[in-house]
Amino acid sequence: MTILRIARNVSNLDHLTTFYAALGFQPLSPAQDNAALAAMLGVANAKSTCLTLGLCEIELTQTDPPGAPYPSHADASSRLFQHIAMLTPDIVAAASRALAAGAAAISVGGPVQLPADSGGAVAWKFRDPDLHPIEFLQHRDQIGYDHSGIVVVDSKISAEFYRRLGLHKVYDQTNMGPEQARLDGLEGAAPHITTLRAASGPGLELLNYGSTHTSAFSFASAPADIAADRLVIAGVRPGLLRDPDGHWVAVEAQPST
Questions:
Q1: In the chain, what are the domains?
Q2: 3-state DSSP call for residue 182?
Q3: pLDDT reading at 210 higher than 70
Q4: CA-based R_g, the chain, Å
Q5: Which helix (H) or strand (E) holds 38?
Q6: pLDDT tens track for 136-173
Q7: In this structure, what DSSP letter does residue 14 have?
Q8: Given 72, 94, 184, 203, which residue has the most CB atoms within 10 angstroms?
Q9: Using CB atoms within 10 A of its CB, is residue 211 exposed (0-12), middle (13-18) or buried (19+)?
C-alpha cells in the first residue's frame, strides 16, 4: 500500500487553494465536480482540486451541503487531530509566509528545536483558515510532505489496523519536555509516536498522548465534516474505511495494468 494523497474538506475551495499555494503547493488541475466523491461522502455535490508539492499530492474538496466546521476547542491531543507534515528548507521563512496567508499558530514562540532524544527536528505546527493542523519540518534536501500524523488512543490496535492495509512499523519514540509542549501548544505533552511506512510514499505517525492528555473531544461524525481528513490509498475494494479512532481512509480502485 502507498498513501496516494491526503484529502481535506474545506469551507471555500478557492480561498483554501490560494492558502495552500502560498505554502508552496502547485495546483495540478482546475476544480471539478466529482459525482463519485459526492456519493462517497454522502452529499449532493462535491467539487475538488488536487495540488502537488514535490512528488506529494493533496486534494481539497468543497461539499454541498457543507459538513460541520472544525471544532475550535479541539487541541493537539484531540482524536480528530490529523496533520500534514511538510518539508521546508527554511522553516522561519515558511512560517512567516504561512502567517501572512492567514495561518494560526499552534506552536508557542515560533519554530521549535526538539532535543536529540526526541528526534532533533526543527518543527512548527499551525492551522489553515479552516483550522486543519499542519506541521513544518525543516529539511534542506527534500520537498514534499513527510507524513500525516493522527492522534490515537491505543497505538497497538491502530498499528495493526494500518498493517492490514500495508503500512509497517519502522520506529517508536516518546517525545517529552518543554520543547514538545511548545510545539504542541499543550502543557506537559509527551506523545508516544509510532511511525508507519510503506515501501514508498509518505508515512503515517500514530500520536498517543496517553491518559493525561487524551482530549474529551472525540472525532468528526461524518465524512463531509471539515475535520474529516482522508488518507487516500489504492485497493481492490473502493470505498470509505474508518480506523479505530474515527479517522477516515478512502480506498480508490487500482489502475489497470
A1: 3-69+221-253 (3.10.180.10), 82-213 (3.10.180.10)
A2: helix
A3: yes
A4: 17
A5: helix 35-41
A6: 999 888 788 999 999 999 999 999 999 999 999 999 99
A7: H
A8: 184
A9: exposed
**CA distances (Å), origin 130, targets 18, 52, 84, 215, 219:** 13, 20, 14, 20, 16
Side chain identity at 241, as an amino acid letter? L
- Contacting residues for 24 by C-beta, under 8 A, at least 6 apart: 53, 86, 88, 94, 143
The Cα 158–Cα 151 span in angstroms is 10
> Could you give the CA distance from residue 166 to residue 1 in angstroms, rounded to a whole number?
5
Closest CA to 63 of 36, 38, 31: 38
Percent helix / strand / coil, the chain, rounded to 5: 20, 35, 40
Q: Are 3 and 201 in contact (CB under 8 A)?
A: yes
The share of the chain scoring above pLDDT 90, in percent, equals 78
Buried b (16+ CB within 10 A) or exposed e, 65-91: eebeebbeebbbbbbbbbbbbbbbeeb
β-pair partners for 241: 249
Per-residue pLDDT of 81-92, as tens digits, reads 999 999 999 999
Q: How far is CA 46 from CA 94, 221, 234, in A?
A: 31, 18, 21
Bridge partners of residue 83, in order along the sequence: 149
The answer to whether residues 125 and 141 touch, using CB atoms and an 8 Å cutoff, is no
Sole residue written with cell 474505511: 241
CB 198 within 8 A of CB 188: no
* β-pair type (248-253, 239-242): antiparallel
Length of the chain: 257
- Looking at the DSSP bridge assignments, the partners of residue 233 are 3, 251
Question: At what angle are helices 91-101 and 13-23 packed, to 10 degrees?
Answer: 160
